[in-house]
């Protein structure tokens, strides 16, 4: 085995249904990984053990021992305290006040950085993907919700004891639909895949989307990004119209964020973008450039994310390494 | 005279109608100032000379010579390139592509920093006022428009070649009134003093605001913040209702910004706030805390700005000194 003497960094992506650990070497080559179901119902304590076991298996796969790790970075789908590494709430998993940093530092004896999964993905795109070398990268990842992240001057933009960049909760319709956050008319209520799914299953129910109806019926939970792309390709015009409308809303919402942050590049990622890159990107960008202030209109690019699912793991790993280096430097 | 041997920094506030230079010593004591009309119609070249003369007069007032200056900071009411110190556009003055940094560095032989006036005000509140010691300060200054600024980790948040934080151009009503920026339904169209003035002169015209009518008639340009406060105190209930509605909109718009930036403190300044601090602040804060995400609700304060008109001059001066120090340190 070639593992002896090597140093590694682990990037971890904790999702509501799946978790994945990837071991990177010093040149950021992927040299081992492990992926398994999250099984959130086992609870927080057993869940933290399961995370550790997944890291152990990835280390085995890489032929490395825990004492060869320089750092672990873990991206999580919920609000957290970045300093303490405590996740306040993982709403899809039912875990609260999860001491991720403390638990993993005790187990592995190396520095652990905890960050939001979308921040991790944005940092990954900044280091290795569509945002390389940019001073300010705004990442927007529409999915069930709409995640946002910003890397500004090389660091993940965050609050003092809380994560930031909740792009999905910029309000676009003051009297709009009730959002999961308790407010009305957040961007998520009109532009997320869940919002699209609501509209297309109603269209299917009305008989306006025959191809979609034949594939998934009217069950909202079965509408994935690929479902939408296939229905559009097969000729369901109403599905195309619904997707383009939602993408337009996303551009509308992002315009407000660009007016605030003046990013150099907006990176769009996630399943919707991957399934329909041309259609979706064009609809987002057209509305975005229409709405943004004239002074900013020519100051940013819009790009599709390049790293897919690996953005969160490599971003978490790179962020953990950067934080560990900064701490070591005093 | 006591000026010999002292070192100073000039803070300059360039407005559409007035300009002011203040000389600060090393302990940030105000030790001389000059203020005059801007007379923008003289044009850019003569205008730059007029700015320099105002600085000369302030230096005279402080008993200092130009070679005693460590830096000059100048806040301007328009978008600019912070690195080159070129102001793209001063819409109320008719000047374009104004080489402020180059002109003043040539004239005074010291480093000059140019920043947006609202950024200067926010930095002033961060250094000396309501935002002291905070990691992230969001400044919001409703006036004719609505200015915003953010100091994050000690630095003014900005774009690569453009200023940022256009809080007034967060869109709150997608089909709302046409904004000066060309988009519809920006926060400015419902929450600025101009929006309030439009509504109150219509109410006065309809006979619903007798006290306001007797003071300013129906001339929108005569409606100042003090006018509104006096009409409310005298019993014009419709004026109070209009102001409270506009302040609520401001809270609504700021909620989206807080969801993005997770600031530690929101500092509200400007004439409306100064004229009606209790009424206005309460209306803003109530709506803001209602709308913001639950995870962020208890993570920020809302405060009234403490420095008034001096925020921009002392902020510009302090920022220029900080930038000069950083440049000197390499």
Architecture overview:
The structure is a homodimer of 330-residue chains. By secondary structure, chain A is of the alpha/beta class. The first copy, chain A, has two domains: 8-123 and 309-328, ATPase, nucleotide binding domain (Nucleotidyltransferase, domain 5), CATH 3.30.420; 133-304, ATPase, nucleotide binding domain (Nucleotidyltransferase, domain 5, 2-Layer Sandwich), CATH 3.30.420. Helices cover 42% and strands 21% of the residues of chain A. Chain A has eleven helices and 13 strands. A five-stranded mixed beta sheet of chain A has the order 3-2-1-4-8. Chain A has a five-stranded mixed beta sheet with strand order 11-10-9-12-13, with helices on both faces. The first copy, chain A, has a three-stranded antiparallel beta sheet with strand order 5-6-7, covered by helices on one side. In chain A, strand 1 (8-14) and strand 2 (18-24) form a beta hairpin. In chain A, helix 7 (225-234) packs across helix 8 (237-261). The two termini of chain A are 35 Å apart.
Cα shape of chain A: globular
Write down the CATH topology of the largest domain in chain A. Nucleotidyltransferase, domain 5
* CATH class assignment of the largest domain in chain A: Alpha Beta
Helix content of chain A: 40-55%
Q: What string gives the helices and strands of chain A in order?
A: EEEHEEEEHEHEEEHHHHHEHHEH
Gap between N and C termini of chain A: 35 Å
Task: Give the amount of beta strand of chain A, in percent.
Answer: 15-25%
* Mean pLDDT figure of chain A: 96
**Quaternary assembly:** homodimer
Please render the helix and strand layout as text.
2 copies of one chain form a homodimer.
Chain A: E1 8-14, E2 18-24, E3 30-37, H1 44-62, E4 69-76, E5 80-81, E6 86-90, E7 95-98, H2 100-108, E8 112-116, H3 117-128, E9 136-142, E10 146-152, E11 155-156, H4 188-191, H5 193-205, H6 210-216, H7 225-234, H8 237-261, E12 265-268, H9 271-275, H10 277-291, E13 301-304, H11 310-328
Parallel strand pairs in A: 1-4, 4-8, 9-12, 12-13
Antiparallel strand pairs in A: 1-2, 2-3, 5-6, 6-7, 9-10, 10-11
Helix pairs in contact in A: 3-11, 5-8, 6-7, 7-8, 8-10
